[in-house]
Automatic annotation (TrEMBL):
Names of the cofactor(s): Fe cation
CDD domains: RHO_alpha_C_GbcA-like, Rieske_RO_Alpha_N
Record InterPro entries: Rieske_2Fe-2S, Rieske_2Fe-2S_sf, Ring_hydroxy_dOase_asu_C_dom, Rng_hydr_dOase-A
Keywords (A to Z) from UniProt: 2Fe-2S, Iron, Iron-sulfur, Metal-binding, Oxidoreductase
Protein name: Rieske 2Fe-2S family protein
Organism: Aureimonas jatrophae
Listed Pfam families: Rieske, Ring_hydroxyl_A
Domain Rieske: 45-151
Key word RNA-binding present: no
Matches recorded under PROSITE patterns: RIESKE
A single GO molecular function term of this UniProt record: oxidoreductase activity
Length: 424
């Protein structure tokens, strides 16, 4: 627990200047990193994976969120559950592998055994007065949003998850995540504070100069631009793109596919943003030729040209859903200056690698983009360590969503550490 009487955190939060990046300690100070874990990652809904991570009864996966070890398991009734990955005897870790399949959950230390509902069903030599019902696994709040898994470590999780799920369910449902499989998972340790990773994701100001692969399927105008700085030809291109978005939204929504932008990035605890955007070229997928990477569609669509649905959640995820595959990203903080970026590529569960899709073609665009972004995050982290760093202004045309991420972060921190500090 952060010592609230000895830290300058409250004053740093109060003097945060909207429209500007955060002060250096927010990216470098281990004490503020600990505060982030307490106020954000232990109190809000965190994206951790997808139902295809645990497709069958007994399938289990593990992850760490700061000091908390979590396991996610599918029980015999096909329900997905989350528990603290801690034996109730003497605290040993129960499941040691990232993924596996179990009949029951058995502690290797003293063989205490739990069923997939978390009940203690075997504990030798504990005496006649021992009540196993009092020693089941400690549960963790878990919600599935059309196959996307979120956990919350708080005793009382934010209730507005239901509002987000009601709005987003119709957008994600056509992609049928529950009937997908994970084609590939990649873990990348980024050399920067988790907020720098998220800030980098929340803008495409940097895309044209740094992401030649990503800007093949994605239009340059999809995430903001300064109209007064465009020449005549660029203004015409931007206008054509605007018409394409409007026409595409109308066509997709007439087909029953929700597409229009919804944004609640800094006015909800469970903040989110979504929009379905057209893709360039053949317009089918995030691939180098913009054509579908998998021959088997992943979902129910009237056309192969359904653009890309993007979905962002605060504080730690973004997703891209196409007609043939999906890509899900999660960020888990490791320490003040390192973050884990986990990327999962999903295809239909019946798609066969080498027959229905080429794995390299499936992952090329985002493998390259992730590596480029990791380097950029490292540049920012190195700068934040220097004496010359000071908060810089965000572009009102291309970085407004970065500002909303920082607004959301400061609100969560002040609610927890500075509730008497007055209006935000």
């Amino acid at each position: 627990m952060l010592d609230r009487t000895q830290t300058p955190l409250a004053s740093l939060l109060r003097r945060r200047r909207p429209g500007y990046s955060l002060e250096a300690p927010f990216y470098t100070d281990p004490a503020i990193f600990a505060a982030d874990m307490e106020a954000v990652f232990e109190r809000t809904w965190i994206f951790v994976g997808v139902e295809p991570d645990v497709p069958e009864p007994g399938d289990v996966m593990t992850l760490d969120i700061g000091r908390n070890a979590i396991l996610i398991v599918r029980d015999d009734d096909m329900k997905v559950r989350a528990f603290h990955n801690v034996c109730r005897h003497r605290g040993a870790r129960l499941v040691h592998e990232d993924k596996g399949t179990v009949g029951n959950l058995v502690c290797r230390y003293h063989s205490w055994t739990y069923n997939l509902d978390g009940d203690l069903i075997h504990a030798e030599h504990m005496g006649a007065d021992f009540d196993p019902k009092c020693h089941g696994l400690k549960s963790v709040h878990l919600r599935s949003l059309e196959g996307l898994l979120f956990v919350c470590l708080a005793d009382e999780p934010p209730a507005d998850f239901d509002d987000m799920a009601a709005a987003m369910g119709p957008y994600i449902a056509p992609h049928d995540i529950r009937n997908a499989k994970i084609a590939y998972t990649h873990d990348l340790i980024e050399p920067g504070n988790w907020k720098l990773t998220m800030e980098n994701n929340r803008e495409c100001y940097h895309c044209g100069a740094n992401h030649p692969e990503l800007t093949v399927p994605l239009f340059a105008y999809g995430f903001g631009f300064a109209p007064e700085e465009l020449d005549e030809a660029e203004r015409e291109q931007a206008a054509r793109y605007g018409c394409l978005v409007t026409d595409s939204h109308g066509e997709w929504e007439r087909a029953g596919i929700p597409s229009r932008m919804l944004e609640h990035l800094d006015d909800m605890v469970t903040g989110y943003r979504t929009e379905r955007l057209p893709l360039d070229g053949d317009g089918e997928s995030h691939t180098m030729d913009t054509k579908a990477a998998s021959r088997i569609p992943m979902g129910r669509f009237p056309s192969s040209k359904m653009g890309g649905l993007h979905f962002w959640t605060q504080p730690n995820s973004w997703h891209h859903f196409m007609g043939d595959h999906a890509v899900c990203f999660s960020v888990i903080p490791l320490d003040a200056e390192r973050s884990l970026l986990r990327t999962k590529w999903l295809v239909h569960k019946d798609a066969v690698e080498g027959v229905d899709y080429d794995l390299q073609n499936l992952i090329d665009v985002w493998m390259a983009t992730n590596a480029q972004d990791s380097e950029l995050v490292g540049f920012c982290q190195a700068g934040a360590r220097t004496s010359a760093y000071q908060p810089g202004p965000y572009s009102p045309h291309t970085e407004m969503l970065v500002d909303k991420f920082c607004n959301w972060y400061v609100q969560r921190m002040r609610e927890h550490f500075d509730p008497a500090g007055g209006p935000l």
